[in-house]
Amino acid sequence: MTPHVLITGGNKGIGLECSRLFLAAGYRVTVIARSTELVEDHPNLTLHPFDLCQIDQIPALIKQLPTIDVLINNAGVMFSLPYDNYPADKAATLMKLNIEAPVALIREVSRGMIQRGGGRIVNNASIAGQIGHPDIWYGISKAGLINATKSFAKQLGGQGIIINAVAPGPVETDMLEVIPEPRKKAIKAAVYSGRFATASEVARTLFWLGTDSPDYINGTCIDINNGAFPR
Ligand SMILES: NC(=O)c1ccc[n+]([C@@H]2O[C@H](COP(=O)([O-])OP(=O)(O)OC[C@H]3O[C@@H](n4cnc5c(N)ncnc54)[C@H](OP(=O)(O)O)[C@@H]3O)[C@@H](O)[C@H]2O)c1
């Protein structure tokens, strides 16, 4: 039977690169995003338009989908707004998309994985969750996602589920459009190679954790930061 991966935000940036890797590996790929059109056509690729901020509707969404073997919680948003002038509705949207939706998806998707005796889940967090961030809610949400990864591994690891996270530094995608140029320059100066990560570099790590990484790597977060946070 063809394995099935659900990738949130699998239509753009890092998520799109991840969708391509799973398609190339023979997976059936379901993408969840607000967009109603995909940039590419593939017989194994399905777009399910859905706004992930509708947390209450996530259980019904998962019930509609075929059995999920791998969940990639990738969709996320950063507004890059100052903490003392952050509209409450923006903060609420960010926290819903970046932390409540992944947690709800893990809860719903893991039910079937437990019944079948296993599955893999990968969460796209950020270095922001480790070292802080000018968008305070972004940093908080990503720290929460790293912590949720560990908490869920404690709950689900004994039931055959492998759940890990990645914490990339800045990656060349549309998300960086809101970062001012001087900050971009400073970030590049603080890494070994003087450049941002590519979407492909992060996607390859998500793919590995979703498919082939050793089972003993569970409940961890892999740094992808090129020296920005060596430890
Ligand atoms: N780029 C970076 O520097 C960087 C660094 C570290 C971590 N990350 C993390 O990597 C992940 C992907 O980021 P990216 O850089 O690839 O960003 P991106 O190119 O802006 O893509 C964001 C994705 O999320 C989807 N999305 C946004 N709001 C949504 C909603 N309400 N419901 C459903 N889907 C929604 C978007 O699709 P639609 O617009 O069609 O909804 C899009 O596919 C994020 O979690 C981000 O925090 C990024």
TrEMBL record:
Organism domain of life: Bacteria
InterPro entries: NAD(P)-bd_dom_sf, SDR, SDR_fam
Family the UniProt entry places it in: Belongs to the short-chain dehydrogenases/reductases (SDR) family.
Name by which UniProt lists this protein: Short-chain dehydrogenase/reductase SDR
Annotated source species: Desulfuromonas acetoxidans (strain DSM 684 / 11070)
